[in-house]
Amino acid sequence: MAIQHPSAATSPVPAAELRGVARRFGGKEALSGLSLVVPRGILLGLLGPSGSGKTTLVKLLTGLDRADEGEAFVLGERMPRLSVLGRVGYMAQSDALYGELTARDNLVFFGGLYGLSGKRLQERMEAVMSLVDLQAHLRKPVAAYSGGMKRRLSLAISLLHEPELLLLDEPTVGIDPVLRQSIWRELLRLRERGMTILLTTHVMDEAERCDSLAFIREGRMTASGTPAELMQRSGAQTIEQAFIVLGGGATA
Ligand SMILES: Nc1ncnc2c1ncn2[C@@H]1O[C@H](COP(=O)(O)OP(=O)(O)OP(=O)(O)O)[C@@H](O)[C@H]1O
Fold this sequence. Notes:
- By secondary structure, the chain is α/β, with parallel strands linked by helices.
- The chain has one domain (16-247): P-loop containing nucleotide triphosphate hydrolases (Rossmann fold).
- The chain is 33% helix and 24% strand.
- The protein contains eight helices and ten strands.
- It has helices at 54-62, 103-113, 118-131, 147-159, 177-192, 204-207, 227-234, 239-245; strands at 16-25, 28-38, 43-47, 69-74, 77-78, 88-91, 165-169, 196-200, 212-217, 220-225.
- The site of adenosine-5'-triphosphate has 13 residues, from strand 2 and helix 1.
């Protein structure tokens, strides 16, 4: 099922694509023949009840996991492919940070993985830490960070190398409303500058801000389109109602 947005830049190569992917864990099918095209330059929201397969889908795009059937492509390359990783930013659901290191040392470490150093690394560290409002805590060990601060640092790290595709798994969980607004302003600004963003969320006001949405249930896509299209198709007044009508079920 192709996700299209009227204002999306039409590039022959989508930012991401899944073709008939299935992923099984033991007897459980987490994804079942799911296809999805993410054109460049859009902000796509994945919505689905807890356990519907969102994280599994995102992990296939990062190359951290492989499909049992079907194919995953990122920026025109079949995944998993190491050379694509420098063009992709990923923020996992649980923070992958080194607690014993300071935030600064975490940034230097991850920046190094992406080939950043010297003045450029310094500039990028300042930019991303200012974005998540953590400049004052650069030299604090991450173990002393609150849960929300760790989420913010993880987001900063995912943006460090100015990726073309940003994959965010529930990026605003544990983040207070004021900062959540400023993070959303920045995500929209990054999208305006051409970054493609795919995020998972359970928050309906976040879903409304996406260019396109994909509803997922039990490993299958039940509906996709712009928020307005989905509301019109379902005769709903809100995204939450559309989600329920179109087979998304209740969010956890
Ligand atoms: N490594 C794994 N081993 C076994 N089962 C797994 C594994 N990863 C995912 N699953 C199962 O696959 C299904 C989909 O999980 P997934 O984490 O993708 O859901 P989700 O939509 O991201 O949920 P949530 O909104 O709660 O994060 C679930 O039933 C989950 O228990």
